[in-house]
Amino acid sequence: YLVGVGRADCTGPVAQVPLMGYANPDQVGGGLLSRLYSRAFIVADPENSKRVVFVSADIGMVSQRVRLEVLKQLQSKYGELYRQDNVILSGTHTHSGPGGYFQYTLFWITSKGLVRPALSSIVNGIVKSIDIAHENMKRGRLFINRGAVENSQINRSPFSYLENPASERSRYSSNTDKEMVVLKMVDEDGHELGLISWFAVHPVSMNNSNHLVNSDNVGYASYLFEQEKNKGMLPGEGSFVAAFASSNLGDVSPNTRGPFCANTGEPCDNPQSACSVGGAAMCMAKGPGNDMFESTRIIGQNIYLKAKELYEKASQEVRGPLSSAHQWVNMSNVSVELNATHTVKTCKPALGHSFAAGTIDGVGAFNFTQGSVEGDPFWDQIRDQLLGEPSNETKACHKPKPILFSTGEMTWPHPWHPDIVDVQVAAIGSLAILAVPGEFTTMSGRRLREAVRSEFDSHGTPGMNVVIAGLCNVYTHYITTYEEYQVQRYEAASTIYGPHTLSAYIQLYRGLAKAIALNATQDLPRGPEPPLFNVTSTTLLPSLSAESAPAGKTFGDVLEEVRPEYQEREVAEVTFVGANPRTSAENATEHNFLTVERYSNISSSWRAVLNDASWDTRFYWSKGSSGQSNVTIEWHIPAGTEPGVYRLRYFGHYKKKVSLFRTITVPFEGSSSAFQIT
């Protein structure tokens, strides 16, 4: 094959924009722990024009809006080379990235609308990563390997899982998929290019009290792998690209110590995930570490170490033709043939009461609990008054789900949920990547993979490696099995197209697999095109206005200085007169907010040893009154840091008023005093 890899920044605004994932409106960005990247991989057939593009981006999920804008840009640059059928866009599902990049109204509520700078940085970052991969195509080889990752996941809805038939469960040793699949890429001289790992775990080691933008456990695994292979480079630099992509992670949590009541310390692993005192709002899962930062590192390191082992030992070469199949489908109206006599249908999208309960990884508000098969008259009445009552048809279709939001019947100012959904499969030789538009649970994913594998088998393509890539192309929440759906925990309440959603997807993906196996992808109907709503920017974010420094100070001045001396494992900390980091994000696509610099006696100069993409640095922004704000930079000095003289630097932009109607953006910088590490 011809192989190309690329990585580009897609962080966006790190302040004031609500983070996407926990749907907690109080969880807004207030700084940066690690940068977010889009990682692109292109595989092309040197004999013909066939190509497959796989992108994994450090974002909560790929939205339809992101996908449509990316495809539009690719078309204007490359014509028909990169299209909706051969470009897969997948989100890692970090819950600590900026939101606001959706066109459907439901996602505006917790994201404060459509935030153009957030959307643009994701779209531009994805396109740039594809550009870099495109420019660096060279002859190469692919190898695949697989193995089990231990001590890194639990099933967070085990009571739902137990609803699946005992005969089916007995075929599996665990209620989560422990298998990691690694695709290794080298050029024809054996030089390492990169890897993609697919593994099912929620990147929610960082909980909903976090305000620092970061890529969570899988992002930390990428960081460790890339730092290892790009020796001597700053984080985010270097040619080797390591993507840790999402899979069927719907019911899979990294918080391996399980759920405990925050107030009493008692376990709460019951069907309602509720505590005897304080109810469901108190039931939260704990990771393996002492705090969320440590848990993120422990889980991320586990994932990285397994990937490294599988990568080093990968010897099964991937060969064969490239192919891709794609359809748009109206998921609110799919007829599914369960057997010769029985046909069922999917429903208009709707969310159940337990959606509002959240999960043990991030609890909901008010008094909602998981496993609600009855509505609540109080909330139902409020909903009827504000949003309108669900139709009888929708209520019946979703049974036994009590509907909280009948999103498929809510259209103001735009539809609240998508009807038109992408289904997509890309085959690279013996590897089939199923790009799914949401979060399949463990058992849903197993059923889908098995159905697709048997479809390939029965049409003359046996022994395919089938992987699920999660959170692709458009976000449609969760996909549970029919049995899991009956008990209506969070994942089931969020299965928006009703109890037969999984059966519909299995039918659709079998169709795509069959078309690939029979070389008939050109005969697949395209399906109804998704809408691109005419919204440029609709946001409740505060506008960026002129900023000021305290009397007698200027931007970048030090307010609280570092100590003169530190040892490893201590935290060097400095506070500056700061400015809103959103100003920097809107001015420079890849703005670096900080460096850690070491003084070299040989050259008598300062050299940057870390930047803001490092997981050892933290950048905090806090807004004061009357246009003033502070920035605090922390360096958590790791064991093994070379002794010497260091300093911390800060780079920002502030808004300055030059006339009644005009403000300009002014760059500035600040530096701490020098300090010694002994």
TrEMBL record:
The active site is at S253. InterPro entries: Ceramidase_alk, NCDase_C_sf, NEUT/ALK_ceramidase_C, NEUT/ALK_ceramidase_N. It catalyses: an N-acylsphing-4-enine + H2O = sphing-4-enine + a fatty acid. Belongs to the neutral ceramidase family. Its EC number is 3.5.1.23. Zn(2+) binds at H93, H202, E439, Y478. GO terms for molecular function: metal ion binding; N-acylsphingosine amidohydrolase activity. Binds 1 zinc ion per subunit. The gene is Asah2. One of its GO terms (cellular component) is cytoplasm. This is Neutral ceramidase. Residues 1-507 form the Neutral/alkaline non-lysosomal ceramidase N-terminal domain. GO terms for biological process: ceramide catabolic process; long-chain fatty acid biosynthetic process; sphingosine biosynthetic process. It comes from Rhagologus leucostigma. Residues 510-677 form the Neutral/alkaline non-lysosomal ceramidase C-terminal domain. Its cofactor is Zn(2+).
